[in-house]
């Protein structure tokens, strides 16, 4: 959406005006097309996406990203406060980041709760096309047969 706003604001602007406003180098490389880059001109790279294979670390990264995006939208709103056609979509985007932050927070609490639960491991029956089939190793090691009351296998 921000890219669309930038495109709409620069559409039809002559190269001289872009040069005068400090966008000459950007125009030279990209015209008025959207090229993902930071405000300092550093191009977007996939290395910005942080994932560790750990749900808690990943959700913490997601939470931080939402807060950074919210802060960026607030700064853009401050820069564009005289243009309601730009500010309103930015406010929408800022609010969306707040909601995403809340949802990621809920997900983090859910993952933390799940990881804090006591682990319970049991090897027993598995369902195979409406028939129950027991695993014999569980019965031998634990002298317990979970199939006694739930299936028609031959391990009783």
> Number of helical runs?
6
Rg over CA atoms: 28 Å
**Cα distance spanning the termini:** 64 Å
Which runs of at least 5 residues are low in confidence (pLDDT < 50)?
128-142
Return the structural class.
mainly alpha
Strand content: under 5%
Report on this model:
By secondary structure, the chain is mostly helical. It has 3 domains: 1-48, no CATH class; 50-118; 121-156, no CATH class. The chain contains 6 helices and 2 strands. It has helices spanning 2-10, 15-20, 24-30, 55-79, 84-116, 136-142, and strands at residues 126-128, 131-133. A two-stranded antiparallel sheet has the order 1-2. Strand 1 and strand 2 (131-133) form a beta hairpin.
Considering the chains and any ligands shown, give keywords for the structure:
156 residues; 6 helices
Describe the SSE topology.
Layout: H1 2-10, H2 15-20, H3 24-30, H4 55-79, H5 84-116, E1 126-128, E2 131-133, H6 136-142
Antiparallel strand pairs: 1-2
Helix pairs in contact: 4-5
Briefly summarize what is shown:
The protein has 156 residues and is mainly alpha-helical. 56% of the residues lie in helices and 4% in strands.
